[in-house]
Amino acid sequence: MASQAKMIVDKDFTIGSIDSRIYGSFIEHLGRAVYGGIYEPGHPQADELGFRKDVFELVRALDVPIVRYPGGNFVSGYNWEDGVGPKEERKRRLELAWRTIETNQFGFNEFADWTKKANTQAMMAVNLGTRGPDEARNLVEYSNHPSGTYWSDLRRSHGYEQPHGIKTWCLGNEMDGPWQIGAKTAVEYGRIAAETAKVMRWVDPTIELVACGSSSRTMPTFPEWEATVLDHTYNYVEYISLHQYYSNAEKDTPTFLARSVEMDRFIDSVIATCDYVKAKKRSKKTMYLSFDEWNVWYHSKEADSKLEPWQIAPPQLEDIYTHEDALLVGCMLISLLKRADRVKMACIAQLVNVIAPIMTETGGKAWKQTIYYPYLHASLYGRGTALVPLIQTPKYDTPSITDVPYLESIAIHNEEKSEVTIFAVNRHLDEALTLQVDLRSFGGCRLIEHIVLEHGDLKAANTAERPDNVTPHQRGSAAVDGSSVTAQLNKASWNVIRLKIS
Ligand code: AHR
Fold it and tell me: Which residues contact 230 (CB under 8 A, 6 or more apart)?
């Protein structure tokens, strides 16, 4: 018999309004994300700018609101000037973060063009590894100043008469990590980030800025890093970043699926640290969170360790995702939604080929990985207001994480569309859960659909040969009686229960 779980939601008990930018993503100059991913002149599906139309189709379907660029570790050694101007004059460079050759055939303006065609916005990162405030303020001037100065006129001479108007900027990347080109102590980074923020904003006062938080919750300097960095930057930035990847290299799926509980704790600790600095500074300003790298990442590590260095766009970080990875991605999306009051931006890392929901063959097909689906559903149906989920569920313990709920769930109220969407993961690997949702304050509801992502094999994946091996169906069992919903959540499944409020 299935175990029972219950959730109560009320339209007046809200977590907060969801900033659609939590469904962002990331394109780094890494592996085949750019070359052979979004950009491949000569591909049968390339448009007049060399962008792959088959990839556009998959990206547009996701309705991605913001895309971080150009890194990642890459940005800490990048000279943005190398990627603008006539392509035939662009320099080839040794790229030290990923030990490849960067041809610079795709750069800042190409990315701006790509974002427009992909119906998204750019989140630009500046290099605070080998460079500093000067190059960063020049880039803001090149990008956003209308005309009449050296950098803005250079942009115009490159064929971009109108400013790009890029609003969101990251002050470096993972500056706490010893692997980072030009890594820094928290004080060194806090100072350079504050000074860079100041001059970037003097060039364009309308921009918003993200300071680097820790590279993961397991960094030895976490959360002291956040406290020190914010001590220096609190008045200059709007967001602090979080990054986190999870792995099932240990082949312990119950623990793997429980990792989002750690993500909840990570988010809560960063909020607590932000609020500590707020109190210390007697500030009225609330610091928001940009979870601008998150995903599952481990499948490709062995293959990457064997790659020959100094290739152009080799297949790096090409994780082939399984059904169980999609379940954790679903749980991680729910974690972001549970703190929608403070997490205002987030980027699944990355978008194409590199630890990505979309895969391509260079010169060939493009298809959806398993993790594409929870990301798609959350982005399409997870807009509006996140409601406090009062949950009763059976729980389990793993060697490292206790009290893991079998049910992970949240409900979203979209007032504009008069819809409520319930996202739910059943983490149980052997048993179904019967979920009863009490939507007492909504009056009557009608079922639109109950989408289910499930598979008999937790390790099942989508490949070029079998792109539809793991795909959702709409045969979920949800039934509505007034304002009460009952659904069987099959073992190891991701569920989307969409309701119309009558
Ligand atoms: O997304 C892959 C890499 O992970 C990024 O370049 C870096 O920021 C992180 O360590």
Answer: 190, 211, 240, 273, 274, 277, 287
Q: Indicate the helix (H) or strand (E) that contains 155.
A: helix 150-157
Residues in Cβ contact with 60 at an 8 Å cutoff, skipping those fewer than 6 apart: 118, 119
CB of 54 shorter than 6 A to ligand 1: no
Angle among Cα 290, 296, 301 to the nearest 5 degrees reads 120
DSSP assignments along 197-241, one per residue: HHHHHHH-TT-EEEE---SSTT-TTTTHHHHHHHHHHTTT-SEEE
Q: For the beta carbon of residue 218, count every other beta carbon within 10 angstroms.
A: 10
Ligand 1 touching residue 421 (CB < 6 A): no
% of the chain at pLDDT higher than 70: 100
For the CA of 97, the closest atom of ligand 1 is: 6
Q: Note the pTM of the prediction, 2 decimals.
A: 0.98
Smallest CA-to-CA distance from 364 within 146, 125, 90, 37 is with 37
71 CA: nearest ligand 1 atom: 6
Q: What is the pLDDT of residue 1?
A: 62
